[in-house]
Each structure stands twice: as structure tokens, then as C-alpha cells.
Amino acid sequence: MNKLEARGICKSYTKSEMTTEVLREISLTIAPSEFVSIVGASGCGKTTFLRIVDGLIQPDSGEILIDDRSITEPGQDRGFVFQADCLLPWRTVIDNVALGLELQGKDRQTAQENARPYIRLVGLQGFENSHPSELSGGMRQRANLARALAIKPKVLLMDEPFAALDAQTREIMQQELLRIWSQERRTVLFVTHQIEEAVYLSDRGSSSPPAPDASNRSSRYNWAGHGPSK
Ligand SMILES: Nc1ncnc2c1ncn2[C@@H]1O[C@H](COP(=O)(O)OP(=O)(O)OP(=O)(O)O)[C@@H](O)[C@H]1O
Ligand SMILES: [Mg+2]
């Protein structure tokens, strides 16, 4: 059984009577515990695709299935690590990581207890009571990752989570992600514009050619990724 399946996803945006086709017939299957990357140039529709998988926006046609069940709205079975970190500045690290658990209906203390192991997992122990403004960019992205993992999603969706980091921090975060993934074994759909990052991290990859113009940006081909043994 597939953990995640996208079937013939199409999406266009219309503004001022001009329609831009972003995704055409995108299909993808991901097995349980697989780490799959999508590589593509800026503007080719990577974030749009992830937002559709997350249920934040609807495709014009096509279907997303998780465990063979069609999804149409966001749910606790998916965790999203956004392109820009979106921690709540007035909440501490522990309260940011606990946020999704509180939204699940857990009281604050239980949510914090459940969040703590994920703070350790991403190496932020000691910073539980810091606010995002007191953290470096890499630490903020660790907190974002912990927040997405804490709800124990079936599928982790990651949208260029390390793009804003310097090369050295990015490398450390990539290693950390593989370490965490080897412990947690979640199904991961990772989006990046860096082929090297995709090859390093993934079991398998799918790439989209650069977005050439508004009328033809959706053809797609596959390549085999050769990540390190995990
Ligand atoms: N809400 C929207 N309304 C209209 N057009 C949009 C909207 N969101 C995205 N687009 C357009 O769709 C195209 C794809 O955008 P998307 O954000 O999915 O690209 P991306 O591959 O994630 O790019 P990047 O690598 O820069 O993040 C772009 O041309 C963008 O302008
Ligand atoms: Mg994007």
C-alpha cells in the first residue's frame, strides 16, 4: 500500500483574466517510510504542490490519497515544515513545539511533556524557554522541524526548509534530518531547488524542468536518487 499518492494533479491560477498553468497531471506515489524529494527551479510549482498535498489549497482536478483515503483539507496526519520559519514570536520554543498538540486538544502541560522529546531530538535542549528572536536561523528551523514531528504525522512535508541557511548550517541540518529520519522513519516529501541536497537526502527523486513560461511548465521526468545508506 502507498502511504501517499497524488493522482493527476492539475492547478492553474487566474488573475486579471490571465490564467497561469502551474501543475499539469502530476502523479506520484510514496511508500511508507520513504524519503522522496522533488527538485525544481523557482516558480515551477513546488510549494503549490505541497500545499495541495497538505490540503491547504484544492487542485483543479486530481486527487491526493493518504493510506488510500482521499484528503481535501489539512489534518493531523500531515506535518508541514514551511519555506520560511513561522514560529509564533510571543511563544517560547517549548510552547511553539507544543502548539500542534494543544490544537489536538491536549492541555498545555501534557502538550509540553509530549513536545520535550522532540526538542531533544532536534538538539534544542536548554532552549525550551527561549523565544524565536533569541535563536539563530538554524535553531529556528530545528524548532520548526520539532513542531512538525511532535504531532506524529504520517507524512512530513518539507518545503525548502534549509534554503535560507548558510552552507555550513545547511549541511549540519541535512545530517540532522537524516539522523532524525533514521530514528523516526516517517514518510517524507521534501522539496528543494538543489539537486545535491535531494540526492544526498533521498531514496528517490522527481524533478521538474525550470518554469519556462506560463503556458508550459508542467512536464516532468524522474531520476534515481542515490542517498547515503540510512
Ligand atoms: N496564490 C497565488 N495566486 C496566483 N499565483 C500564484 C499563487 N501562488 C503561486 N502562484 C504562482 O504559481 C507559480 C508557482 O508558485 P510556487 O510558489 O508553487 O513555486 P515554487 O516552485 O515553490 O517556487 P520557489 O522555489 O521560488 O519557492 C508562480 O508563478 C507563482 O507566481
Ligand atoms: Mg516555494
Question: What features would you describe in this structure?
Answer:
This protein has about 230 residues and is α/β, with parallel strands linked by helices. Helix content is about 30%, strand content about 25%. It has a domain of about 120 residues: P-loop containing nucleotide triphosphate hydrolases (Rossmann fold, 3-Layer(aba) Sandwich), CATH 3.40.50. Helix 4 packs across helix 5. A hairpin with a 2-residue loop joins strand 4 and strand 5. It starts with a strand and ends in a 7-residue tail after the last strand. The longest helix has 18 residues. The C terminus is likely disordered. Bound molecules: adenosine-5'-triphosphate and magnesium ion. Adenosine-5'-triphosphate binds next to strand 1, strand 2 and helix 1.
Topology:
Layout: E1 4-15, E2 18-30, E3 35-39, H1 46-54, E4 61-66, E5 69-70, E6 78-81, H2 93-97, H3 99-103, H4 108-121, H5 137-150, E7 155-159, H6 167-184, E8 187-192, H7 195-201, E9 204-207, E10 221-223
Helix pairs in contact: 4-5
Adenosine-5'-triphosphate binds next to strand 1, strand 2 and helix 1.
**β-sheet strand percentage:** 25-35%
| Small ligands present | adenosine-5'-triphosphate, magnesium ion
Q: So how many helices?
A: 7
CATH class of the domain at 1-77 and 186-230: Alpha Beta
**Assigned CATH architecture of the domain at 1-77 and 186-230:** 3-Layer(aba) Sandwich
Instruction: For the record, give the distance between the C-alpha atoms at the N and C termini, rounded to a whole number.
Output: 22 Å
The neighbouring-strand order within the major sheet is 6-7-8-3-9-10
CATH superfamily of the domain at 1-77 and 186-230: P-loop containing nucleotide triphosphate hydrolases
User: What percent of residues adopt helix (DSSP H or I)?
Assistant: 25-40%
Sheet with the most strands?
Answer: 6 strands, mixed
Taking pLDDT < 50 over at least 5 consecutive residues as the criterion, the unreliable ranges are: 209-230
Q: What letter string, H or E per element, gives the SSE order?
A: EEEHEEEHHHHEHEHEE
Based on CA inertia axes, which overall geometry fits? Answer: globular
Rg over CA atoms: 18 Å
Arithmetic mean pLDDT? 86
Instruction: Count the E strands.
Output: 10
Reported by name, the CATH topology of the domain at 1-77 and 186-230 is Rossmann fold
